[in-house]
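Q: Predict the assembly, please.
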Amino acid sequence: MKKYVYSFDEGNKEMKSILGGKGANLAEMSKIGLPVPLGFTITTQACNKYYEDGKKIDSALREMIFENLEKLEEETNKKLGDLNNPLLVSVRSGAIISMPGMMDTILNLGLNDETADGLGKLTQNPRFAYDSYRRFIQMFGDVVLGIRKYKFDNILESVKEENGLSDDTELSANNLQDIVVKYKELVKNETRKEFPQDPREQLTMAVTAVFESWNNARAIVYRNINEIPHHLGTAVNIQSMVFGNMGESSGTGVAFTRNPSTGEKEIFGEFLINAQGEDVVAGIRTPKAIEELKNIMPDIYDEFIEITKVLERHYRDMQDIEFTIEKGKLYLLQTRTGKRTAKAAVNIGVDMAHEGLIDREAALMRIDPEQIDQLLHPTFKPSELKKAKIISKGLPASPGAATGRVYFTSEDVVEASKRGEKTILVRIETSPEDIEGMVNSEGILTSKGGMTSHAAVVARGMGKCCVAGCGELKLDQHSKLFKVNDIVIKEGEYISLDGNTGTVYEGTIETQSVEMVGNFGKIMEWTDGIRKLKVRTNADTPRDSKIAVRFGAEGIGLCRTEHMFFKDNRILAVREMILAKTTEERKKALDKLLPFQKEDFIGIFEAMGSRPVTIRLLDPPLHEFLPHKDDDIKSLARELDIDFNKLKETVEDLKEFNPMLGHRGCRLAITYPEIYEMQVRAIFSAAIYIVEKKGIDVKPEIMIPLISHEKELYIIKKLVNETAEEVMREKNTQLDYKVGTMIEIPRAALTADSIAKEAEFFSFGTNDLTQMTFGFSRDDAGKFINEYRKKEIFEKDPFERLDELGVGKLMEIAIKLGKETRSDIKLGICGEHGGDPQSIDFCHRMGLEYVSCSPFRVPIARLAAAQAVIRNR
Amino acid sequence: MKKYVYSFDEGNKEMKSILGGKGANLAEMSKIGLPVPLGFTITTQACNKYYEDGKKIDSALREMIFENLEKLEEETNKKLGDLNNPLLVSVRSGAIISMPGMMDTILNLGLNDETADGLGKLTQNPRFAYDSYRRFIQMFGDVVLGIRKYKFDNILESVKEENGLSDDTELSANNLQDIVVKYKELVKNETRKEFPQDPREQLTMAVTAVFESWNNARAIVYRNINEIPHHLGTAVNIQSMVFGNMGESSGTGVAFTRNPSTGEKEIFGEFLINAQGEDVVAGIRTPKAIEELKNIMPDIYDEFIEITKVLERHYRDMQDIEFTIEKGKLYLLQTRTGKRTAKAAVNIGVDMAHEGLIDREAALMRIDPEQIDQLLHPTFKPSELKKAKIISKGLPASPGAATGRVYFTSEDVVEASKRGEKTILVRIETSPEDIEGMVNSEGILTSKGGMTSHAAVVARGMGKCCVAGCGELKLDQHSKLFKVNDIVIKEGEYISLDGNTGTVYEGTIETQSVEMVGNFGKIMEWTDGIRKLKVRTNADTPRDSKIAVRFGAEGIGLCRTEHMFFKDNRILAVREMILAKTTEERKKALDKLLPFQKEDFIGIFEAMGSRPVTIRLLDPPLHEFLPHKDDDIKSLARELDIDFNKLKETVEDLKEFNPMLGHRGCRLAITYPEIYEMQVRAIFSAAIYIVEKKGIDVKPEIMIPLISHEKELYIIKKLVNETAEEVMREKNTQLDYKVGTMIEIPRAALTADSIAKEAEFFSFGTNDLTQMTFGFSRDDAGKFINEYRKKEIFEKDPFERLDELGVGKLMEIAIKLGKETRSDIKLGICGEHGGDPQSIDFCHRMGLEYVSCSPFRVPIARLAAAQAVIRNR
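A: Predicted assembly structure:
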């Protein structure tokens, strides 16, 4: 027979997976001799069995519960339902991973008409007894019987009104008895049954209700959001009640052993006199700061402070503690690791390491890499924020805070920023043509598109604030304004965006950079001593490169060259190149682009110094650079002095059924080698310029995209080498460089042994690799991916977290085969997964040399890479 | 020192890879004592070395050539350049794989002003000597010196004219001497050098020219078409000349040991008296049938017949033989395996097996599976064809011959065929909406689209004649006519299509079914005794199913259900279903479709009898079923009584960036389970109906498309099982069935162990698997695939031949993993590769249970499957 129930003295803190967090810690506190009210825990396995058995508590479990109850009765010398000395218990949920407030709790169980009377006599405090009874009926009614809470509140309020009372504490014993009668009537009316008077029946019903609350709607949503598996189940803790509501020498409170928002080493908490736990939570009365307890009950305060020290030392982490004082005696009801802000996490980690409480590695492991993001972006001043007027809310697509004047086109943003204005770019959704506007604005607001829309992805890449998919926004491009209900914002007017919450505000709000305290630098330094993975960045501009270097980037893993093509007036030359009818014409147009590209690379090389820079040659299909609307085609036709109809035909001709699977990447260079030739020429001219003018040892790595066959790479590598040698001969110099490839097509991974013959490095392009491996495109998956999440087909969007079983397996194959051919092949990743902590862990296990991510994720990646080492040791 | 030159007595027929086909067979004939003029062969390796050395004949090779020449001089007792007894030689190319007429040949080498004179004296036949000399100058001038042949012809003609002669044989020795003088003048004018008089220099130049001819333009094209590797190189055969032009007792000819077009056992050939080989080829004189030789030179005829028998017995195959008679003596100049039609291949194979010359397996191995196609489709009567007027020529997209009245829309074709007319559907290109028209027409003609366009693929699938991409055709849909230059064909007028050649004819032409002689049936029977792979068919209609069964299909491997959706007026219900706003509405529309679908499956089950039928549930994205042009949207809006703008918006909304990677396949059933539910209901209702009414043991296999994750299959399999059980419960019966999946997404292959938990069978959908593995779509690859072929990146279009290294590796992984979970998992392939012989060989090696292909490829697949067994034994 499996053991489904553990008394507190049988458990310890390592047993979380069966006792839940709360149960394990109650047992642990008992074990180390802290004052914990007696009790026992029904395991999570019992909860799972309840569901397996078709939502039934079987007789074996029931028996174990009552055996433990009897033991509890013996030890407390009270009896459930005893008229003279009744045992009252609390029944609380306790999940393995904390889900605060999501599941249910019942206090004061064991009370009925008779035991309430007995309790009044025993305590000589009938007011307390009926206060407890009415609380119990209300909680039980709500949680177990499903009666909406406001109906109880209405009764309570009406009695207070009848008696001219304003505060609950003013209710007399008689008032409370009256309320109890009315509550029981409510229960009878709602359930067509009397309120259950048998305490054992109450207990069984309450345990069932807690089991059921594991699958209530809000718990399911919470687990989905927090990626908590649905099969874990909850434990149930049955504990003898202690009462904070037994008068002025009683009370209840919560406290953190350190400040959870700053990390400062100080007790941080609050308490209420003469109250039960839910009063603190409900906010009916305003609690007092914990320090005041010193004045009211100095001994209790000292005892409590001593206990907090014991607990922090014992758990070696900041604790979040619940306590109750019953008639001058202190009881602990819960302790758990306290939640904290990123800032607090960093500070507590460093402090505890300095205090010798933990070592550096433990300090690193306690910081959630995702949280660090908070430390890197500006925020609104909280004082200002309170006064701000909210216009609407969209998706928090890219963190940060931004204030600026509204403009509706990329061109207008660019113009305004030339005038020195701070701007916000507002679009239905962005496209590659908006890049310049995005770069020059403070933030981006779109009315359509999700968390992985163009605007969101590019903004995150730039570390720029973005609110996406703000559906309420009605854009009127023509009149240059937008409306939200009856609010109208015209071009040039100020708005403010909070990328952390997705909120859009009217007018300006002052922002603040979160101070980067010295401890953050220390944490980053510690990661560098531990991690095996190098961290590079994906950056296409000198500006991004500089930010990334400041954040610790050790090179560029992906420098896309297509964004450069949209800049300024070079797009015209790009279009001439695309529309060229002969190789000659195409070369002429490319010659115009060459000096621009050279300039781009000079800026980037200079920013990166002697760090390696991996440049990906042109990747997107050419039609992305052409206009598609008739008006735009017309104006281009005029500009190039060609026939509109012919141009339109060419534009139509270049359209593709599946652009993702079309004429792009290295395929462009197989058909038009002169494009890559120009790019390589620009790269090497720039590199040699920097070497000669600045004496910097530039390390270009030329990366060929979309390789599926070794022969593609063979042909293009030859072109690259020949062009590079030509430039070096012209400049009479030599330069070390590498030629490698993206592995982003399944076939490349599967034939990596052949491809490694040519490639000096592999960089896993896991965005495309994920698309091809799953066979769905990021742009189209929106139509079904929600249903997939809902039906739990994907635990996590595979574009956010690397799919280890599928995409990861391809990577594993590629690594194995690649090394067979070239044992020292350089391996990296440059898909968006390169900035996802869990995916970074996978990359570490696969033995990659580096990950590459957007500049603002570099610190996150550094931490995640260090954690991966520790975790997998 | 590597041996680069072999005397004929040093080689044999197994040495083809270094001696080339011609050289190896000359050596072999020498070896078995047949009369072959003496000579030697310069190896293919020498040719490759020539290219490696930068197109130079190095001194070592030169030395070996002249050593062998001296040996030849000794054995023939003649000397190159000897004034009195000159040795003359032929210099011929000889590739490993025959490339008839693609490379160069020079005869009579060794002649110059002096040896010509000497030869005239020696033979007492100056006419012969100067005839040979002028032939030599012309050939050498053309092949070695690059002087256009017509310039020599002009001289020859003018001399004939001057002397009033009409036939070359009438030219006197003096005339020929005159011609020689003029030829040499031409050479001097063209090359600014004298015609080379040194025979050794002539020889070196000739060998060089033959080496060079390996890479002439037409040879490269020929190799590309015939998939002959470009690195093989050619051998060069130097052989002492024998002369068919030494008078009436001399001659030359070619013969096959059996009839190459029917396979009949009879010598089939022709000859010319007093001529050299090129006269036969050039067609200046009309050759005589070989039988006439019996009258002219009975002894020679008998000797030749005897030799043909020896050669056929020796090579155990039909031979194609070249011979020359010099002054009453027979010499053999070449023997090789004779090319033949499919019909001949079948008949010769069966006959030789019966004769005991070869065994059945050898007979099977000699038939090219691709060729069999010729035997399955109707052709035009040759007599009729001669009279027919050609309108234009397009691509031979799907074989067969068809005559019918022209119609320009699917609807008009359907109407006309209801009236009993035979029709040809003419479209710019076809789309899924044209399916009904394609089914009801005799043939399809399109003005755009290539060999893998919609029209081509679907027509081949149906075994229906199709000419695609006929670019000259100008369609005027409005006036219901098409023009080609000044020919105008109006609706209702007759045209005829030849799908084997791509030719379009005016008017009607009578067709004939090629008689399926008994030998073909025998060959098919033999394959069945050998092959391990079962052969199923891809068929969606009772008609196709019946054809396939007639061709020997053992089941359906892929029954697509989407074509059914376009039929008749059910498309309206389909559109209602797509446009439904609620599940209720959707179910209502699906209910309308249910009886149609049931009917479809009844027809197919009945046609297939107790053979297994694999039905793939709905696969394409829903927008494929909606109209896209404004006019069509308007008329649909009217039909469904909804607002045009709203409908248009929905149509736009459903559009996808990458439909191939979009909301289709099983993803449809994850979001709209009711679609598959309807289909499963239809399948099981139909199956039970057939079982009960016809007593046939129906074996439905439900196939889920586009699975990428085990959980998709888990959810859908559950739906299928529940629906099936519901239907069976309603009908109070039981039915055996299987549920399996396509493996067409890389991730499915990579996680096949998990997927096999649910799938009872895997069917490799190698069309999509190829697209995803390579990362390019079939529809878009047209823009670059030619360049890929040209640059030899792909030897073969991976959509035609399975890419073993990439796609094949995924299959291998899937098979291994699938069997780990379910050792008896059923494995098949249903992509178009299932009908490609080389891909079938791979499927055999992978241990699949069956291949599935279009009905008309079933016999091809049966043969290829048998050959795979023999080849891999």
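The longest strand of chain A covers residues 329-337. Chain A touches chain B through 48 residues (CB under 8 Å).
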